[in-house]
């Protein structure tokens, strides 16, 4: 009987543990003014009782709460989620604590909010007004500037609309950050509801950038009218002030090939598998990741990695990512390279160093990886490349095929019967790929036989190679940039590069290097002279290479991309 009671008690404890609620606390803004309201969302997964928010009233005025509940069924199991949205007004300035809130037997985690002094004095005349803010107002070229728009209104409105920022003078790229933020504030003793919208601006050239006034328009209902949308009402239209940015050029102290103005830059590496087990003829994958705060992924340069003699590298396609977090742009460039040593011995991979400009401290810094020395063991008996497929990049079939052929030449006397069997397998695979390629070619030809000709595009980008040639011959950097962006619209229709930095990130080889030189000539403080002859030669080589790539390939496997 005692054992039965113990079992029942254990079951009850386990059931209670499964029913425990997981509580998440989300604050829209962790820094607010003493005159601004604050919205906090408590989300509970699982069963939860009605919470008691009275502990919040020690440092905050409780403006109101609302609850939302959702139920989902996953694999026959019902899951319930409830959220409480609480609007608060801080009572004093300083670091205020959101204390734990009881949800039955569970408590929410404690959070800290920073409350600053009053955000403004007297309120502008009118029931609705706009406020724009830029930080910094004097950024570096291609560096991130935060641009914030706030709509203040003291009346209820409908059919509201707000224009997007427009560059009236200068050249810049504008990206919107996240969703709108709503809160309440006090200006000059008057109460206003505020909607805040955030952007980031990337100036593309030094000098003055002028941002047109933004326009907000909405309909204010008649007083005492319940059916606002049916009773008409008056239209209210307000404009913000014009915003000007003074963009600084690249400082003379910067010595890198690619201009990287950021809040933070990090360079890391990853080596899957045991480095001590590296053998001749077998691939080892090295993954390099460059992360930046305050830049887009298109601005990140190629991570140049040198290799010693006797080691070949097979780079995979880089993975680029840009996301918004904490009110800024965070980007990354991830490069995966397979390294294959031809023989045993000691190899040293050189150090990697990427210079960047810290926009917070206003000084030159470096993202570095130290040199790495590896001992390569002799090739094992019967070993072939590809014995560790889990550490190969996505191009593993091409790498394995090339490595297997090299291994056959270097270890012919050691492989024996295993090498003969492997050769037969690879011949069969190659034949199968060739047959599949021929079948695909035949199907393509059959589908194209009766297909209509290509439709005329609605709007064709204007690019004439002779215009770029004339700009290069005249050593006109600004005209060359304009023509190159026209060419990008033809090269990537529907996804054209919007800036010189984005175009540079999409290319490689000599043309990429010449675009780096063009960028320095356009954005540097020294206004250095630019020679366009080398750019024109690199452009011709790139277009010839593109035409060769577009020709139908011979019925065989594609060659490896080897560096």
Biggest sheet descriptor? 5 strands, antiparallel
Outline the low-pLDDT stretches: 4-20, 223-231, 382-422, 450-461, 550-563
Which structural class matches the secondary elements?
alpha+beta
Q: How large, in whole angstroms, is the Cα Rg?
A: 31 Å
Strand content: 35-45%
Please give the domain count.
4
What does the average pLDDT come to?
76
Percentage of residues assigned to helices: 10-25%
CATH topology of the largest domain: Immunoglobulin-like
Keywords summarizing the entry:
single chain, alpha+beta, Immunoglobulin-like, 4 domains, five-stranded antiparallel beta sheet, four-stranded antiparallel beta sheet
Description:
With 563 residues, the chain is α+β, with helices and mostly antiparallel strands. The protein has four domains: 21-116, Immunoglobulin-like, CATH 2.60.40; 128-247, Immunoglobulin-like (Sandwich), CATH 2.60.40; 261-415, Immunoglobulin-like (Sandwich), CATH 2.60.40; 465-550, no CATH class. It has nine helices and 29 strands. The protein has helices at residues 2-19, 396-410, 412-415, 417-449, 465-473, 477-491, 500-506, 509-523, 533-550, and strands at residues 22-27, 31-33, 38-45, 60-74, 77-90, 94-98, 102-103, 106-107, 111-116, 128-135, 145-153, 157-162, 167-169, 172-187, 190-203, 207-211, 215-220, 234-239, 243-247, 261-262, 264-270, 284-293, 311-315, 319-325, 328-341, 345-349, 352-358, 363-369, 372-376. Strands 21, 22, 23, 24 and 25 form a five-stranded antiparallel β-sheet that branches. Helix 5 (465-473) packs antiparallel against helix 6, helix 5 packs antiparallel against helix 9 and helix 7 packs antiparallel against helix 8 (509-523). It is globular, with a radius of gyration of 31 Å. It starts with a helix and ends in a 13-residue tail after the last helix.
């Amino acid at each position: 009987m005692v054992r039965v009671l113990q079992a029942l008690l254990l079951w009850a404890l386990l059931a209670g543990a499964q029913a425990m609620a997981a509580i998440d606390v989300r604050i829209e803004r962790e820094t607010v003014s003493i005159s601004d309201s604050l919205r906090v969302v408590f989300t509970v997964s699982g069963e939860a009782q009605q919470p008691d928010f009275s502990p919040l009233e020690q440092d905050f005025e409780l403006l109101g709460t609302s609850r939302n509940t959702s139920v989902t069924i996953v694999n026959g199991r019902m899951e319930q989620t409830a959220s409480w949205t609480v609007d608060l007004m801080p009572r004093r300035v300083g670091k205020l604590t959101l204390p734990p809130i009881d949800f039955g037997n569970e408590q929410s985690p404690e959070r800290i909010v920073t409350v600053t002094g009053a955000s403004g004095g007297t309120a502008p005349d009118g029931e609705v007004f706009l406020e724009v803010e830029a930080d910094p107002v004097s950024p570096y070229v291609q560096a991130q500037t935060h641009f914030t728009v706030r709509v203040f209104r003291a009346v209820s409105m409908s059919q509201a609309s707000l224009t997007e920022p427009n560059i009236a003078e200068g050249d810049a790229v504008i990206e919107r950050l996240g969703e709108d933020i709503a809160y309440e504030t006090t200006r000059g003793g008057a109460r206003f509801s505020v909607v805040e919208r955030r952007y980031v601006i990337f100036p593309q050239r030094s000098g003055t950038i002028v941002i047109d006034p933004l326009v907000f328009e909405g309909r204010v209902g008649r007083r005492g009218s319940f059916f606002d949308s049916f009773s008409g009402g008056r239209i209210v239209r307000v404009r913000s002030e014009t915003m000007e940015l003074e963009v600084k050029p690249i400082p003379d102290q910067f010595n890198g090939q690619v201009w990287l103005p950021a809040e933070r830059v990090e360079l890391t590496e990853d080596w899957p598998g045991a480095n001590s087990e590296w053998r001749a003829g077998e691939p080892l994958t090295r993954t390099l990741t460059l992360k930046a705060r305050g830049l887009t992924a298109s601005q990140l340069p190629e991570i140049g990695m040198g290799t010693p003699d006797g080691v070949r590298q097979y780079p995979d396609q880089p993975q680029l990512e840009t996301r918004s977090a904490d009110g800024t742009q965070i980007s990354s460039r991830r490069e995966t390279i397979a390294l294959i040593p031809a023989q045993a011995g000691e190899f040293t991979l050189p150090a990697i160093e990427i210079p960047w400009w810290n926009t917070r401290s206003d000084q030159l810094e470096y993202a570095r990886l130290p040199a790495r020395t590896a001992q390569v063991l002799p090739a094992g008996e019967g070993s072939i490349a590809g014995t560790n497929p889990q550490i190969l990049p996505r191009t593993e079939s091409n790498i394995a095929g090339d490595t297997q052929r090299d291994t056959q030449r270097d270890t012919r006397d050691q492989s024996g019967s295993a090498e003969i069997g492997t050769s037969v397998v690879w011949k069969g695979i190659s034949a199968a790929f060739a047959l599949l390629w021929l079948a695909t070619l035949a199907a393509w030809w059959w589908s194209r036989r009766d297909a209509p000709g290509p439709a005329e595009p609605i709007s064709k980008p204007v690019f004439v190679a002779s215009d770029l040639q004339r700009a290069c011959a005249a050593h006109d950097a600004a005209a060359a940039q304009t023509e190159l962006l026209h060419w990008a619209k033809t090269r990537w229709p529907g996804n054209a590069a919007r800036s010189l930095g984005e175009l540079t990130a999409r290319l490689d080889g000599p043309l990429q290097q010449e675009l780096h030189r063009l960028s320095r000539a356009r954005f540097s403080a020294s206004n250095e002279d630019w020679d366009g002859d080398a750019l024109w030669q690199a452009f011709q080589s790139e277009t010839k290479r593109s035409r060769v790539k577009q020709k139908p390939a011979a019925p065989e496997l594609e060659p490896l991309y080897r560096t």
